[in-house]
């Protein structure tokens, strides 16, 4: 069964005279126990999409969708209050910069204890207090922090980035969520710490069958940890499929360029040779091209591209391009 | 081929506060010896606290070395003598957004090194600036823009223009590609490799991304806690890493990406 199923979700920003469509009809569906990567460069609207799922977007953004199902339940028909209750129970999110996301004025111990649901504790107030303490320590142990005494009594600035990220994960796990949205969990972290965090997430996925939506700007980083990948560009859906499909036989010119431009993925390329790169840069929100937004940078762009392409499904490999590799018979 | 930059036994120790009987010191960089030739790239790999940024600071002269000498061409670079050094050794930083002065136009930003280091007159300076902007893939009209009008990738190109405008011999890239998006990163890498061919630059590439290091560098130094762990031609180190630490670094980045899936 699908964990959640979103069809044609659009997020727009009301400006003085016109609406700016930051996310343009993106579809995203996840199965239970799946690790899905959501890849896109900065300004592709991937963080907005995650915040729209969580329902924590600023009211200035307006969100519309054709379908927004959570475990078979239609969330669009519910009031914001009911929707929040469902999402808050089952979905947790961890943010990009753990040190900035934690409260700098309270100790780690208090912050973890605060996240524990009071309804899960029993007994009198002293028993509950004790249970809450031991639960917080159990959570810290679970994410691989061994010396909980030092950690609970310190403030976020006294710990390293990787430990802070672990604390964030511990807080997210307090309600044992079904879905964890990880918004660039390893940005600005060293490669060895990155590996630790990803391994922790992967083990949680295996042991507790927690689904993970892994958001990243770099295709290289996530390929090892995901089952399926969705690629976005400038607020539009580009391509979705299994990690192998995306990496071995990308259908969209943009995904093709992303894979080709990664030096780590092209081992056979001679050193110091030119990498393939798309010309130009990502359009800013005020000057979005019409139709397919990759148009001005796309090597295959033709006149037809001024209308936005419809997503086509090739055995679960969904691509949104008029002239994809399947059409032109290259794969 | 004679080597362009030769570094002999360069080291840096910081004094920690303490009384005169128990003076403590902290060694940021143990003695290191290497040389770079023109048209070559030396990559320096290591984690935070491995001394790679200290090495970069020593090379540009922002810090004074405790021991050792830096030779450029055949001349020894002395501490505090910047007349030669800041023309020949230039540096690009990681975060291009904060290294450009937001209250100056691109023309003023690029003019500064020229005014301080050359005897060119106004017209010659403007011509040189236009030419340099074209070289890094921007337009001459961009001279009148302010840094906030550019995207991240373009800002990094402006820092590159500022670095190459004095026709340097050595360019130090301190994580210069880390903050860029993948498609812009490969554009920038292509541009850097082109400029290296045209101008005969020597690069010192400080990076954590081993994929880029493997692609762009000729020689490699792996640093750990200020000590050289491994040193040699990049191809050789990557195909046959000798040290455990190098292997750990390579494994943590899944350098055989695409083979495992």
UniProtKB/TrEMBL annotation, chain A:
This is Peptide ABC transporter ATP-binding protein. CDD domains: ABC_NikE_OppD_transporters. It is found in: Cell inner membrane. It comes from Thalassotalea eurytherma. GO terms for molecular function: ATP binding. InterPro entries: AAA+_ATPase (IPR003593), ABC_Ni/Peptide_Import (IPR050388), ABC_transporter-like_ATP-bd (IPR003439), Oligopep_ABC_C (IPR013563), P-loop_NTPase (IPR027417). It is a peripheral membrane protein. Coiled coil: none annotated. The keyword Ribonucleoprotein does not apply. Keywords: ATP-binding, Cell inner membrane, Cell membrane, Membrane, Nucleotide-binding, Transport.
TrEMBL record, chain B:
Transmembrane segments: none annotated. Residues 5-250 form the ABC transporter domain. It is a peripheral membrane protein. One of its GO terms (molecular function) is ATP binding. Its main location: membrane. SMART domains: AAA. It holds the Pfam family ABC_tran. Gene3D superfamilies: P-loop containing nucleotide triphosphate hydrolases. SUPFAM superfamilies: P-loop containing nucleoside triphosphate hydrolases. InterPro entries: AAA+_ATPase (IPR003593), ABC_transp_ATP-bind (IPR050319), ABC_transporter-like_ATP-bd (IPR003439), ABC_transporter-like_CS (IPR017871), P-loop_NTPase (IPR027417). Keywords: ATP-binding, Cell inner membrane, Cell membrane, Membrane, Nucleotide-binding, Transport. The keyword Cell membrane applies. It is found in: Cell inner membrane. Belongs to the ABC transporter superfamily. This is ABC transporter ATP-binding protein. The gene is sapF.
């Amino acid at each position: 069964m699908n964990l959640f199923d979103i069809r044609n979700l659009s997020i727009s920003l009301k400006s003085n005279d016109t609406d700016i469509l930051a996310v343009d009809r993106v579809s995203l569906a996840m199965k239970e126990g799946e690790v899905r990567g959501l890849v896109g460069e900065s300004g592709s609207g991937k963080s907005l999409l995650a915040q729209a799922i969580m329902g924590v977007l600023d009211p200035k953004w307006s969100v519309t969708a054709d379908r927004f199902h959570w475990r078979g339940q239609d969330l669009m028909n519910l009031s914001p209050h009911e929707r929040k209750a469902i999402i808050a129970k089952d979905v947790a999110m961890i943010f990009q910069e753990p040190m900035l996301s934690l409260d700098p004025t309270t100790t780690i111990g208090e912050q973890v204890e605060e996240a524990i649901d009071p309804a899960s504790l029993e007994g009198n107030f002293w028993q509950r207090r004790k249970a809450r303490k031991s639960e917080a320590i159990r959570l810290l142990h679970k994410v691989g922090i061994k010396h909980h005494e030092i950690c609970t009594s310190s403030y976020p600035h006294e710990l390293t980035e990787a430990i802070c990220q672990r604390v964030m994960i511990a807080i997210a796990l307090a309600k044992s969520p079904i879905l964890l949205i990880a918004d660039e969990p390893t940005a600005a972290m060293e490669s060895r710490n990155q590996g630790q965090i990803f391994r922790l997430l992967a083990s949680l996925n295996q042991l507790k069958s927690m689904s993970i939506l892994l958001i990243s700007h770099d295709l290289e980083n996530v390929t090892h940890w995901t089952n399926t990948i969705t690629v976005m560009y400038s607020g539009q859906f580009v391509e979705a499929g299994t990690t192998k499909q995306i990496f071995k036989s990308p259908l969209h010119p943009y995904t093709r360029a992303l894979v080709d431009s990664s030096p780590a993925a092209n081992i056979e390329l001679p050193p110091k040779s030119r990498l393939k790169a798309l010309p130009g840069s990502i359009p800013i929100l005020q000057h979005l091209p019409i139709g397919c937004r990759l148009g001005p940078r796309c090597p295959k762009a033709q006149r037809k591209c001024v209308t936005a392409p419809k997503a086509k499904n090739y055995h679960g490999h969904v691509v949104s391009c008029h002239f994809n590799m399947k059409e032109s018979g290259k794969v | 081929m004679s080597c362009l930059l030769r570094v002999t036994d360069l080291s840096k120790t910081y004094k920690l506060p303490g009384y005169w009987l128990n003076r403590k010191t902290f060694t940021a960089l143990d003695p290191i010896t290497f040389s770079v030739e023109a048209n070559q790239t030396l990559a320096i790999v290591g984690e935070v606290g491995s001394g790679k940024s200290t090495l970069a600071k020593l090379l540009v002269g922002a810090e004074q070395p405790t021991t050792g000498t830096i030779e450029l061409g055949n001349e020894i670079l002395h501490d505090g003598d910047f007349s030669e050094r800041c023309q020949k050794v230039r540096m690009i930083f990681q975060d291009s957004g904060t290294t450009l002065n937001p209250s100056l136009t691109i023309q003023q930003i690029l003019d500064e090194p020229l005014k301080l280091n050359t005897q060119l007159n106004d017209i010659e300076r403007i011509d040189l600036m236009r030419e340099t902007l074209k070289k890094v893939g921007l337009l001459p009209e961009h001279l009148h823009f302010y840094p906030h009008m550019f995207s991240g990738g373009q800002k990094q190109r402006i820092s590159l223009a500022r670095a190459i405008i004095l026709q340097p011999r050595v360019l130090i890239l301190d994580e210069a590609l880390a903050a860029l998006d993948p498609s812009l990163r490969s554009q920038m890498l292509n541009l850097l490799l082109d400029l290296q061919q045209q101008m005969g630059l020597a690069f010192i590439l400080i990076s954590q991304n081993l994929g880029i290091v493997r692609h762009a560098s000729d020689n490699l130094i792996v640093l750990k806690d200020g000590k050289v762990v491994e040193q040699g031609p990049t191809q050789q180190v990557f195909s046959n890493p000798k040290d455990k630490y190098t292997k750990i670094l390579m494994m943590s980045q899944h350098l055989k990406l695409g083979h495992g899936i």
